[in-house]
Amino acid sequence: MIEVREIGEHELERWIAVAGAARRGRVGTVEDYVDWRRQAEDMAWFLAEIEDADVGAGLAHVGWHSPPGIGTAEAYVLPGSRGMGVGFALYRELARWVAERGCIELESSVLEDDPESLTWAENRGFREVGRTSTLVLDLTEIEEPAIDPPAGIEIVSWAERPQLAAALYDVACEAYPDIPGEEDSRLDSFEDWLSKDMQGSGDRPEATFVALAGAEVVGYAKLSLSSARPEVAMHDITAVKRAWRGRGIAGALKRAEIAWAKRQGYTRLETVNEVRNEPIRRLNERHGYRVEPGVVVVRALLTGVD
Question: Which value, to the nearest 10 degrees, does the dihedral of the CA atoms of residues 40, 45, 118, 135 take?
């Protein structure tokens, strides 16, 4: 008998152990997950058990860079427990949870190199709506780069200029809708954006870099950090105002991040790029990032998940 139940923070260690064992790349600390729930409109975690043994885990959330009416969920099943209906039981609960919050579609992701799971999703009405690759830079193999910004551009850390928060938000308002897959997502108010996107547990002002043209903020780039992987820094976003694109500003911001991570002793930088985001993919490849398998983003009407 498969039992799926929603859990609280006190059981997150168990949830993390199951999810990490079932899905490559699913990492995070209890602090990370609690903070991610704060950043979402609502979030829930589920455990699946058979005879009191943990066999699967699920995550659902709404209102976190998602268009209205679309809930996001993921289900993870331990390898030895697949083919027993655990995934279906989890998705049924996840679909119910997002439907109760007004959603009519369910979005999820499948590892790009996991054809079995992709077939499982397709057989249940999910269709591909996006695809991202993972790009990795081994910092142990490179020297610290010169930032070398274009003429007239200064790169500083946000820690040096904390008063620039509102100007960073102006850049985000232009850049977020231009990210493939984010076109219909709602942008939070300045106060919510600042709290959720810039002041999370993995966000540090000294790891956020700002491009200035005189007094005008024309771009920024931010790293995300987690104690779950202390040797790895994640690129969160690189954003440049439309009128300033194509001048080498994004590259200078990227090199500022690489140089900072190298100096701080990180050994690896990672980012995920939507395959349609050709400019940022080329930028990363020019800086030595290598492509690794990513994820396929899938979506289904909630009536089709059964």
Answer: 50
